[in-house]
């Protein structure tokens, strides 16, 4: 079959041979992934051609397809290597790998010996491992490996200034043949989209209904359905297969963990009409010929890391407009097509244009350690396409430091180097090393493999509970037992299912375990496989603590699942966990998940005894003896606490609180307005206003002023010796205030901010003060007859205002110009009021 990319054959070969760097943009389905590696081979590239894929399933399917195209056996000239699967040989010239595998190879030998070309496919997905690997390959090409050829392929160039980043570089673009796709919006209820009733309840119903609507169409072709995850795919497939209207249609799920046979069936180029229900692997990674209808739920599961709270989040999110367009494009490959979007056009307009690259949203600890191990000390100055957020980098640095991988100078330690050798998050690499120390390497390996996989248990089937034992110290013990049962049953899905075990998960786990065992043994760790009952839980809890001390948690009470976690965080312990009711525990999983509500769940927990915690981290313990305010009793009580870092592990209340702390706590509540002092009255406010204003009017007098802190201090002074609100409620304030100033300062205050002034007609008037306002007197105008000039205070610097009151004491006018008032204001006032108040004197 002639593909658009074939037209570029010569140019591609030339570009790569001449400049060594090529950026190739062509739409999905134009033949990039299947043809470019062969073209490189034929143009004379020597050594191994490594093609980097973001996904395992794509690497595997492409390798098999290309091997078939070239008429060779898989694993011969064309092979693939993904996690748990090494399908290449001496003869291999083209190898499809995942970005994780390339990262490992770079780690093992940064020079990539034997590799002639690296092709980064689907680069627009911007996976963190691809970003980093590309940067390192560019460096490599500019230093010791000038002969290395680099090709970056992407469905779009609009990613992070890629073209400039790669300079000097040849750029080739191809436009594939695309047919028009008719896009229809058909919103389903927000509830189904957002999962208000649990994980996407009802989404599959809506999707099945949409499929039913399309199967009747004459030119539907194959129907490709996009869903966020395996769970949703399974539910939808079940519904559709059961329905009568789907007769004559083959229903094919498509996702990474599926068996190779079913994967092949889903993407097979020929065959009867199919409904393919897929994750976003079919968005750009895989092309399925003959699709004329796309049904898009518009959602994807997105992993993020929140550096502020230090937790992973796994949320179903709305895909970007760019992704939606890629998905729609799948319908127009062979003929005009149709795309049904299960959201509204309005919603579409509000979606983000592109997804955020991984470097901006995931935990950086693993990448950071890999870079440090590769000798890149200043990671901030690394050749990033887009640099990670400085704060996120800081958080990752801290974690590595805590795990002993970096020293105080942020340089990698021996232990850090050892940790970097494991294809694991540094946390779990540390766990394996701690396993060596506590003689439970295999147990640690099991835990590491388990947390990095989907796990052994089917969701919500009670497996965890069924396999756990009252005396267990860790939830992993149950998982271990279940894993052994699954192994005995040879991973038979039906039999495993009866026990709440996910056969597929267990099988994956076994592969991961084997791989870890190999690496652990190679690294000289003493891997001693535990048998059924011998999972050494006592040793495990010590090892786990070394890896997870930043996840130490304690329940808020026996009656609640709510917990406090070190670092001022909160979460909910798994209701089935054996760590429930422990003094403290660590959670291997701390993930924010969207279910009925958004919560942080603490799963896969291990009980920790306070003694062992204290023994391992003596300097992180502190005792606090102090006072706390009891809101309901409105009094201060004494509390003694034991803390691990900032987490309170034990506390006791009772006895006399230290009085200075009591005064401080009470004062805080008064300042915040929660408690009111009855004697904090107008006179007090006046006194403060006089002081504040005068210190501004006459700074030369060097009065102390009255700041927020002073405010708190005075109130604290008032609260001295008190323990409850009752004690302070009616305490005097003015006497405390007057002690605020020395004798001479008081004299200055009384002289220049007097409480009373004499007017020129002999009458006296009270002066009113307000912070940051001009002072004033308030008088009935009859008392002001004969006064034309208002008195001045602050050594003549500040003129008083007068609030003129009508005979009924109501304010009539505010003025600083009495003379003007007598001339212009008074006649009018007299006209208005004299008739009404004839008994008063009017001149
Ligand atoms: P691109 O990488 O540009 O998106 P591909 O090289 O993946 O394009 O696909 C080009 C063509 O190769 C597709 O249209 C499809 O017909 C065929 N193809 C790719 N992978 C497979 C496969 N696993 N099985 C059958 N055909 C395939
Ligand atoms: Mg491709």
UniProtKB/TrEMBL annotation:
Q: Where is the Helicase ATP-binding domain?
A: 13-175
CDD domains the record matches: DEXHc_RHA-like, SF2_C_RHA
Matching entries from PROSITE patterns are given as: HELICASE_ATP_BIND_1, HELICASE_CTER
Q: Where is the Helicase C-terminal domain?
A: 210-375
Q: Does the keyword Cell division apply?
A: no
> GO molecular function, one example?
hydrolase activity
Question: Domain of life here?
Answer: Bacteria
Tell me which InterPro entries the record gives: DEAD/DEAH_box_helicase_dom (IPR011545), HA2_WH (IPR048333), Helicase-assoc_dom (IPR007502), Helicase_ATP-bd (IPR014001), Helicase_C-like (IPR001650), HrpB (IPR010225), P-loop_NTPase (IPR027417), RNA_helicase_ATP-dep_HrpB_C (IPR013689)
Query: What keywords sit in the KW lines?
Result: ATP-binding, Helicase, Hydrolase, Nucleotide-binding
Q: What is this protein called in UniProt?
A: ATP-dependent helicase HrpB
What is the organism field in this record? Oceaniferula flava
């Amino acid at each position: 079959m002639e593909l658009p990319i074939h037209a570029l054959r010569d140019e591609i070969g030339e570009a790569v041979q001449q400049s060594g760097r090529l950026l190739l943009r062509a739409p999905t389905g134009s033949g990039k992934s299947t043809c470019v590696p062969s073209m490189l081979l034929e143009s004379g590239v020597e050594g191994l051609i490594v093609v980097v894929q973001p996904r395992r399933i794509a690497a595997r399917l492409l390798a098999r397809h290309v091997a078939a195209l070239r008429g060779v056996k898989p694993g011969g000239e064309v092979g693939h290597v993904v996690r748990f699967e090494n399908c290449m040989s001496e003869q291999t010239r083209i190898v499809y790998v995942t970005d994780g595998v390339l990262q490992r190879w770079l780690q093992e030998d940064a020079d990539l010996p034997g590799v002639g070309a690296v092709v980064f496919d689907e680069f627009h997905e911007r996976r963190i491992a691809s970003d980093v690997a590309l940067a390192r390959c560019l460096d490599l090409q500019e230093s010791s490996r000038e002969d290395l050829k680099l090709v970056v392929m992407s469905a779009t160039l609009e990613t992070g200034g890629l073209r400039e980043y790669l300079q000097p570089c040849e750029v080739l673009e191809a436009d594939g043949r695309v047919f028009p796709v008719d896009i229809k919006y058909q919103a389903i209820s927000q509830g189904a989209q957002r999962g208000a009733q649990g994980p996407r309840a009802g989404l599959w119903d809506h999707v099945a209904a949409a499929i039913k609507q399309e199967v009747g169409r004459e030119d539907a072709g194959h129907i490709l359905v996009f869903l966020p995850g395996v769970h949703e795919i399974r539910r939808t497939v079940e519904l559709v297969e059961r329905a009568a209207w789907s007769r004559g249609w083959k229903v094919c799920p498509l996702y990474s963990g599926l068996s190779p046979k079913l994967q092949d069936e889903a993407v097979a180029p020929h065959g009867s009409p199919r409904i393919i229900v897929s994750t976003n692997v079919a968005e750009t990674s895989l092309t399925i010929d003959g699709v004329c209808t796309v049904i898009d739920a518009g959602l994807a599961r997105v992993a993020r890391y929140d550096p502020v709270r230090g937790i992973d989040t796994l949320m179903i999110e709305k895909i970007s407009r760019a992704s939606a367009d890629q998905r729609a494009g799948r319908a127009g490959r062979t003929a005009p097509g149709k795309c049904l979007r299960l959201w509204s056009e309005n919603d579409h307009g509000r979606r983000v244009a592109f997804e955020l690259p991984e470097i901006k949203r995931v935990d950086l600890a693993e990448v950071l350690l890999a870079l440090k191990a590769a000798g890149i000390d200043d990671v901030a100055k690394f050749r990033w396409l887009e640099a990670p957020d400085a704060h996120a980098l800081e958080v990752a640095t801290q974690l590595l430091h805590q795990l002993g991988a970096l020293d105080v100078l942020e340089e990698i330690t021996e232990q850090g180097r050892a940790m970097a050798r494991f294809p694991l998050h540094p946390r779990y690499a540390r766990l394996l090393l701690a396993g060596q120390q506590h003689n439970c390497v295999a147990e640690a390996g099991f835990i590491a493999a388990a947390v990095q996989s989907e796990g052994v248990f089917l969701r919500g089937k009670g497996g965890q509970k069924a396999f756990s034992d009252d005396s267990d110290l860790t939830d992993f013990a149950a998982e271990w037992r279940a894993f052994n049962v699954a192994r005995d049953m040879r991973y038979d899905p039906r039999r495993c299912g009866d026990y709440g075990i996910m056969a597929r998960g267990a099988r994956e786990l076994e592969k991961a375990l084997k791989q870890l065992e190999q690496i652990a043994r190679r690294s000289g760790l003493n891997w001693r496989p535990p048998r059924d009952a011998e999972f050494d839980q006592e040793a495990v809890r010590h090892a786990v603590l070394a890896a997870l001390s930043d996840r130490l948690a304690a329940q808020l009470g026996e009656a609640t699942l709510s917990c406090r976690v070190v670092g001022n965080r909160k979460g909910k312990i798994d209701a089935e966990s054996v760590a429930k009711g422990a003094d403290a525990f660590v959670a291997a999983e701390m993930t924010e998940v969207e279910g009925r509500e958004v919560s942080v769940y603490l799963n896969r927990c291990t009980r920790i005894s306070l003694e062992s915690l204290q023994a391992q981290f003596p300097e992180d313990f502190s005792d606090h003896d102090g006072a706390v305010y009891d809101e309901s009793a409105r009094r201060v009580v004494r509390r003694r606490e034991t803390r691990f870092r900032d987490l309170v592990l034990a506390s006791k209340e009772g006895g006399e609180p230290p009085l200075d702390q009591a005064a401080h706590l009470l004062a805080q509540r008064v300042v915040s307005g929660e408690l009111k002092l009855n004697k904090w009255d107008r006179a007090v406010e006046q006194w403060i206003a006089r002081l504040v204003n005068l210190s501004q009017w006459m700074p030369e007098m060097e009065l102390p002023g009255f700041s927020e802190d002073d405010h708190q201090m005075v109130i604290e002074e008032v609260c001295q010796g008190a323990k409850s609100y009752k004690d302070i409620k009616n305490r005097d304030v003015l006497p405390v205030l007057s002690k605020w100033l020395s004798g001479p300062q008081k004299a200055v205050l009384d002289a220049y901010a007097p409480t009373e002034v004499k007017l020129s007609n002999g009458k006296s008037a009270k002066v009113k003060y307000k912070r940051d306002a001009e002072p004033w007197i308030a008088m009935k105008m009859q008392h002001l007859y004969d006064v034309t000039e208002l008195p001045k205070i602050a050594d003549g610097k500040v003129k008083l205002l007068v609030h003129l009151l009508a005979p009924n004491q109501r304010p009539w006018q505010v003025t600083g110009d009495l003379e003007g008032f007598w001339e212009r204001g008074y006649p009018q006032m007299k006209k208005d009021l004299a008739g009404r108040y004839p008994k008063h004197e009017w001149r």
